[in-house]
Amino acid sequence: MKKIGIFFGSTTGTTESVANTIAKYMGVPAADVHDVSKTAPDAVGDYDVLLFGCSTWGDGDMQDDMQDFMDGVSSLELGDKTVALFGCGDETMSDTFCNGVGEMYRKLLPTHARFIGEFNTDGYDYSTTAADVDGRIVGLLIDNVNHEDTADERIKQWTEKIRTEM
């Protein structure tokens, strides 16, 4: 069985809540859910499957703790790892919606990890997102500000997809 680690950066607690919901649906123990502000990047070495999540701030930037964590992780060789990404944002920030997911993706490309978990943005209304890479959304985007009522179902569907792709 593959060991799953969830790593999140959260300022207000929203991404932490999403990470814990993902853990619940994936059957990941609390000990394997990591706040990156308290975790060294080399902790990813303990896992086969890595789920990274962050919120988007400012002008479309990754949450600060995740930015620092990704700087460390991006220097690692992760060719034997599978990675899936998730992020939180607000669709009213229409030109930077969930950009953090795209930023994580680009930071992790040099690591040679295998990416899974592309997902749809059905029901969201935004103009652009850095999470759109060549016409595909490279992770799960959650808008708990405007679509809190759909978040749980989106997480459930995404985790089911992750399970089949692992």
Describe the structure.
By secondary structure, this protein is α/β, with parallel strands linked by helices. The protein has one domain (4-160): Flavodoxin domain (Rossmann fold, 3-Layer(aba) Sandwich), CATH 3.40.50. The protein is built from four helices and nine strands. The strands form two sheets. Strands 1, 2, 3, 4, 5, 6 and 9 form a seven-stranded mixed beta sheet that branches. Strands 7-8 form a two-stranded antiparallel ribbon. Helix 1 crosses helix 4 (148-165). It is globular. The termini are close together.
Question: What about the largest sheet?
Answer: 7 strands, mixed
**CATH topology call:** Rossmann fold
* Residue runs with pLDDT of under 50 for 5 or more positions: none
In CATH, the architecture is 3-Layer(aba) Sandwich
Helix count, DSSP H or I runs of 4 or more residues: 4
Number of strands: 9
Radius of gyration, taken over Cα atoms and rounded to an integer in Å? 14 Å
Q: Compute the separation of the termini in Å.
A: 10 Å
- SSE string: EHEEEHEHEEEEH
Q: Tell me, what is the CATH class?
A: Alpha Beta
How is the quaternary structure best described? Answer: single chain
